[in-house]
Amino acid sequence: MAKWGMVIDLDKCTGCQACTTACDMENDTLPGESWQDVLYYTEGEYPSGQMKWLPRPCMQCEDPSCVHVCPTRATYKDHDAGGIVFIDWDKCIGCKYCMIACPYGVRFFADEKPLVEPDLKEVFAGSGGQLWDPPGQSPDTDYRRGIGVQPKGVVSKCTFCYHRVKEAPEGVPDLDEDDPELVDYVPACVRTCPPKARFFGDLDNPASNVNKLIGNKNGIRLKDHTGNRPQVYYLGAGAGIPAFQPKS
Amino acid sequence: MTAQDNQSGNPALFTPMLYVGAAIAIIAFVFSGFMLMTQGHAAFNMDANVAWGLPISTYVYFALMSSGLTLLAALAMVFGFKQYYPLVKRAIWLAIITLVAGLAVLAMEIGHTFRMLWAIPLNLQVESAMFWMGVFYLADLIFLLWKFQRMERGDWSSKLSRQVGIAGFIAVVLAAGTLALVFGMMSMRPFWYDPTLPVWFYATAALTGVAGLVFFTYLSYGMNTERMPKALRMDMEGPLPRLFLILLFITLVMFLARLTTGLYANATEVNVVWADYLLASGWFHLGVWGGILLPFVLLLARGLRQSPAIQMLAAVLVLVGMFIERLYFVVGGQVVPLFKGTWERDLVAYVPSPTEWVLTVMGIALVFALYALGERLFNLSDMPQAEPGEAEAEPEATAEARS
């Protein structure tokens, strides 16, 4: 079985947020609760201040702290599904311990005050336990893997668009959006990226393009000191996070 | 001394306290339930930054007060300090009801309370500190109820009763310790990350336990030690306030050590939390200086220490101060924005919502109502009948302890 990984080249990323929008549309997330977003950072001060940005999906860690803390095993790492970390929405009790334990802040309760007005939970009131009924709701639903419109009282996260990836032919080293045979199986953020800054493939396959990029361009993992060992790698300058300093 | 002699239940106080407390708890439950049904968890002010807020800190407060009361009762039940026997039954009852209140608040906070009842036992995630916290607090509650039932039958020291007491002590040590580790093992939250956090939780648990016991004992007797059974009065004038003082001293020393290391640390997630969040808040200062230092000073002089009014004042200060400290502890681990970039340019702002406060009021009202119920149904000042030969020795021992 493949071990799916993502490579994000920060030298190519323009911070356009197309990936964020594609993710929102694909996964029917509420505004502001994007499973994948682009974070902006400022570093230094005038006149030498810099702006940096960093696309941030779930890192699908090899040793995920969120899995260890979950008291019900609702969060689990599925090695039969490429090592993706899922949340079983039928087991999640909404204790939010995984949100505390995730070093990357990529888990979303969403059953909270709206981040953007108007509150779409009121505009498109949810039925059948869903937080909301988005217009044109995606037909893909798999509660055991946290795929679909998020129900009330549970945590959600990026699934590497498993509902697409699972349909890919067995043994394929990379899912490249430029390959017409594979384009439908590529995660939404990778497929949409205008400057082609994202790559998706099998980290266990030495011939995969993602492995070559990581090897040839010194791919790094964020916050590697936490021991979580992400399956998402970054290339290029700026693949780090400035230490927090209050700005006021 | 018969059970009737010890009876402290004052119908003039406890009947209205029971009904008013129960009414407030029910109204608070209905209100917060209505808010959750209509608004979902948007009724709370928690979000992706501060996932755990006031309801969790209220749960931690009550759970640790319960643990502290059990530790206090263990002095007599497990370690043989017989001078504490007059306090044991009230301490156990208070431990039961504060744990119930804490669990009630927690149940209203989480996303799927009823799912928790089957999902946790059926999935046995033994790697999770939260799983073990649940297991040990459940065991703690069962042993507390069992021990109370034995005491109610007059069985204080049979082999079974002693074994239940020891089991309860072991359960509570593990429970409070794993509750600490729920926070203390989070290396991605440096403000909490601390292998010695269980020690801080034990010390402050014992402190709030003693404060709660002092508060409710004086409440039962209308601040009048003359109405108390002799052995209880001796406890309230000697060993208990002295234990109170020692626990205040230990807590104060540990707090100063935490404060110093926090401010000395270069790590932003630790230093900024102490300097720009905790110490920047007047409430936090009120909580720690008013809730630890001031009661410590008040109880330093023996004359003041024996005064019921001063003890009561110190107990109220500790109960309020540690409530504030728990809230700042729980929120403090989350105020440095995690991976938010310029979306959060400053420390995360969190103020509990009215529904969160109502949940806290529900917990407090539940404690008062259940305490009044306990006073009406049971003799909480009951203690073992002195065995032949002990009758003379015990007052001497207690008199020694007073000095």
Description:
The complex is a heterodimer of chains A (248) and B (403). Chain A is of the alpha+beta class. Chain A has a single domain, classed as Alpha-Beta Plaits (2-Layer Sandwich). Chain A is 17% helix and 15% strand. In chain A, strands 6-1-7 form a 3-stranded mixed sheet. In chain A, strands 2-3 form a two-stranded antiparallel ribbon. The longest helix of chain A is centred in the first third of the chain and has 10 residues. The mean pLDDT of chain A is 94. Chain B contains 16 helices and no strands. At the A-B interface, strand 2, strand 3, helix 2 and helix 3 of A face helix 5, helix 6 and helix 11 of B. Chain B: It is a multi-pass membrane protein. Chain B: This is Polysulfide reductase. Chain B: Its main location: membrane.
Tags for this model:
heterodimer; A: 248 residues; alpha+beta; Alpha-Beta Plaits; 3-stranded mixed beta sheet; 7 strands; 15% strand; globular; B: 403 residues; mainly alpha; Formate dehydrogenase/DMSO reductase fold; 16 helices; disordered N terminus; disordered C terminus
In which order are the strands of the major sheet of chain A placed?
6-1-7
CATH architecture of chain A: 2-Layer Sandwich
Report low-confidence residues of chain B grouped into runs of 5 or more. 1-6, 391-403
Q: Please tell me the total number of domains of chain B.
A: 1
Q: CATH class of chain B, please?
A: Mainly Alpha
The Rg value of chain B, from CA coordinates, equals 21 Å
Shape field of chain B: globular
Give me the oligomer status: heterodimer
In CATH, the topology of chain A is named Alpha-Beta Plaits
* Sheet with the most strands, sense and barrel status of chain A: 3 strands, mixed
Over all CA atoms, what is the radius of gyration of chain A?
A: 18 Å
Number of domains of chain A: 1
CATH homologous superfamily grouping of chain B: Formate dehydrogenase/DMSO reductase domain
Helix content of chain B: over 70%
Beta-strand residue percentage of chain B: under 5%
What is the CATH topology assignment of chain B? Answer: Formate dehydrogenase/DMSO reductase fold
Uncertain segments of chain A: none
Separate helix tally of chain B:
16
Rounded mean pLDDT of chain A is 94
Would you list the SSEs of chain B in sequence order as H and E?
HHHHHHHHHHHHHHHH
Number of alpha- plus pi-helical segments of chain A: 7
InterPro entries (chain B): Electron_transfer_protein (IPR052049), NrfD-like (IPR005614)
Transmembrane segments (chain B): 12-36, 56-79, 91-108, 128-146, 166-187, 199-222, 243-265, 277-301, 313-337, 357-374
Family (chain B): Belongs to the NrfD family.
Protein name (chain B): Polysulfide reductase
